[in-house]
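Justification of computing resources. Each target in the renewal requires a structure prediction run like the one illustrated here; the chain below, 260 residues long, is used simply to show the kind of job we budget for.
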Amino acid sequence: MPDKPHTSPDGRTEVALIVGGGPGISASCARLFAGEGMRVAVAARTPDKPALLELERDHGVRRYGCDASDPSAVAGLFEAVGSALGKPNLVVHNIDGRTAEIFRKGIHEADHALVRQVLDNSAYSAFLVGREATRRMLAGTEPEGDGHRGTILFTNASGALRGFARSGAFAMACHAKAGLAQSMARELGPKGIHIAHVPIDAAIGWTQDDGSRWHRMAGTTVDDNMADPDRIADLYLHLHRQHRSTWAFEVVLRPWMETW
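Resulting structure tokens:
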């Protein structure tokens, strides 16, 4: 890791919080942000996942347990991170929200309780995380020298762009998250908070122990036919570093050969 923490233009140490920890995008972001000198925290319902333990051991990333669909748990997470590391000025919401039981269920067979669970896990948790991040970014401090108070990034899926057959619950959640992000961007951009929405129209092949990249349904990557989470992390850092005269709101990612 760098010799000293990365600081913002006014000298503040940067703190990143990634909500929704796992071995893919979240782990790639945590490694990159830590390598940039940020203080990094990752939150997950199961914080003792091997990938998160590795981040703690090898990169000094703090792990936190949090059910992001629980308002008190999310508020407690931000309090804990703020006390231990400082107020986050980069927050990534990276929760898909689907469960195996609802996956590829037709509208006539989707269980209403599972549909509500998907909405809670994805869109509602995005609201809770976005709300807590906003409260803290707006409170107590003036914008940095470049007018930037912080960045909130929302990972989404191609369901944000179109509703697929047998995917009603997920389409609802993705569209809701997209609407939330757009509303927040219009409200908070003028206040110095950069909101960005990133629909990923691809399977994400994360790196295995043998160096290959793999997705549980799509198999092993061939000729970059799946999104690389390390490259997604590069984009997220770039979004955080953007000048406010050219803040991007929505960036859709897909591999070079993806049909769409």
